[in-house]
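lol ok so funny story. i was supposed to be doing the assay writeup but got distracted and ended up predicting the structure for this chain instead. priorities right. anyway since i did it might as well share w the group, maybe its usefull for someone
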Amino acid sequence: MDNDLRVQAAPDYAAVVLGNLSEPYPHSAHHTQVSADDRPTPEQIHPAFYTSFDWHSCVHMHWLGTSLLGAASGSPSSGAAPEGASDGGTAAWVDGPTAASLREALGANLTPAKLAVERDYLLANPSWERPYGWAWLMRLAATCSASSDAQIREWGSALEPLVDAVAELSVAWMAKAQYPVRHGLHTNAAFGVGYMLDAFRSLGREDAATACEEAARGWFADDRGWPGDWELSGQDFLSAGLSEADLMRRVLSADEFAGWFAGFLPELSTASRILQPVSVTDETDGYLVHLHGLNLTRAGQVARIIAALRESSKPEASAAAAVLSEALDPLLKAGLSGLESGDFMSTHWLASFAWDALGSVAALD
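and the output, tada:
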């Protein structure tokens, strides 16, 4: 795999972003009504993020849009961005007219006034979108703040009050969460904390980053013998085990992580179920199509774990990296095929996961 995959994909993904940001309905609202009169429209309570079927998908469509406007290592312009920032930079992956359309659509939503309403909603509902939506919001903020583009940095400044809110909420949550959520859906703790950790580091939020590191160690440092063959559930879009490993490689040294990973998946082989692509039987079923996302998140996580293992001198690291390397291409190809259906149950979210996976794979080259 090489960086050309992103170059080829970028125009299509930009079209997905623009299409989703213009689609207010159908919409899956996760608003808890407190009275018979509490029946707001999505745009009333989420003026910045009310399209793309649901709030978190709208947030990461904005992340994808800003990423397509920016540059990362290996992109059409030079220069690498911090890990949490992902694709902050100056040169776009798309042509001038498309970039202008993205700027118009994103800029219409990422305004201080609209984002203030979003902040107030988060603070009034402290467990809402925890931690998945928080993670994507922090990735968006980190990408904008790390950009060399003045307009994108303005969006980052407008997002700072939301960073304050999520930092406050996440520190409070992790301080009281005795146990992690381990399933393969939105509330998975490892996936969300991993991306929040990247973003908080990039944004210079040391207290929140430290809280993420401490939570990761407290929840997962002693885990051994993960039952990878058991974890797959019928509507997962995350591998619970690989999400955990992807978090721990962020908080352990390379050699520490190599030892931890060997104990975590001691029987890992090319035949392990955790590394096998999965298929979707009904492209119109919003839950079953989660399995497309599972292929993509596994691919991205496998790529990042390989990169971490390559930094270690331990013999078990090279052996595990070799096994994971064989799994990478089939997982990525299976995941990318999910974008071909054209059904809204896939198109409202999968492109962000594809871009994320492609970036992680490209970083290996």
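The two ends are 8 Å apart (CA to CA). DSSP finds 15 helices and no strands in the chain.
back to the writeup now i swear
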